[in-house]
Amino acid sequence: MSADARDAVVELLRHMVTGESDEEEVALGNADLGECRAAARNGVWLVHRELGTRRRESAEAVLEQIDNDKPRLAAYPAGVRGTWCADPAACRLKRQGP
Prior knowledge:
67% of the residues lie in helices and 0% in strands. By secondary structure, the chain is mainly α.
């Protein structure tokens, strides 16, 4: 899958799990998005994988809603935060120093 397609999928997932239920669903007693979040939980490891990419912010927003393993949720992003670089050549120069 292309990077742009992955961007769109992760962003769509973010909207699905962080959104609000429609008024009609609320009237039917389906206000908590529980089924949607439960379905997303089946692929939680895929969302964790996105933390090391340019989709990190969207992935973090999704994980805040679907990952029930709070210690993992706290530890894993800290382990990959800052590993993605928009301009690899510039990042190499920064690492090498002046």
